[in-house]
User: What shape does this take?
Amino acid sequence: ANLGIVPALVGRHDAVFSDRLNHASLIDAVQLSRADSQRYPHGDLTVLERLLAASPARRKLILSDAVFSMDGDLAPLPGLLALAERFDAWLVVDDAHGFGVLGRQGRGSLDHFNLPAARRLVYMGTLGKAAGAAGAFVAGDATVIEWLEQRARSYIFTTAASPIIACALTASLDLIAAGDARRQHLWQLVAQLRAELADTRWQLLPSPTAIQPVIIGDNHDALRVASALFERALWVPAIRPPTVPRGTARLRVSLTAAHSEVDLARLVDALRALA
Ligand SMILES: *Cc1c(COP(=O)(O)O)cnc(C)c1O
Assistant: This one.
């Protein structure tokens, strides 16, 4: 979806302003668009404002994960939208990890921040994470959607999603809309993990979401801890550079509503023992 959206909205002589920690599919989308690529430090509205003010580009597009996939933190979406309004730019948001879990009824990150629909806001959500199926969708102003239907090449030249997926998604959406109890359980697990790891030697990143990275630092140590966990029947992947910055190798703990408090206690005990 990202490969379709970004090149449909901008091209040569335009500029894209991307958060430095954006997902690989957004980085590739910018390259494919041939627009001038400008990256700002993670979540840094001040630098972004300076870059936007200095840009002579005809069309500008701000591009960001809503929930950062390796850190779990949230983009400053109200600030990004305000800058998009001020500098007449598009704002394209990738909510792969927000849709289904954040906001009322799991409506996603925009709802989490109480942001209304806006003409320059394009919302992309994926359907393989909380929705448990596959594929993605894009929502936005009717004119923008019409434009994407005519211009997004990865959409036009790909066979339509299978009816099997559409059918599964209908059930997923019902579960998501009625899933307050599941989300409540998930947020409780997140709070419990954060509280119980607060006094260990490994630092948790300040993430309010289901992605809870435990920073180990050294690549080799991260792999050793991950494999020691695996031997205890706990599957927590070790994420290393270049996926994350050098020196910040980490365990990427992903909690879900399907985990129990007993699962969580086992993880915490194992991490304490290994620390
Ligand atoms: C996982 C992810 C994607 C890709 O989604 P798929 O459904 O796996 O294709 C895109 N963007 C972000 C931010 C992601 O975390």
Observations:
- The mean pLDDT is 96.
- The chain has two domains: 2-164, 180-274.
- DSSP finds eleven helices and ten strands in the chain.
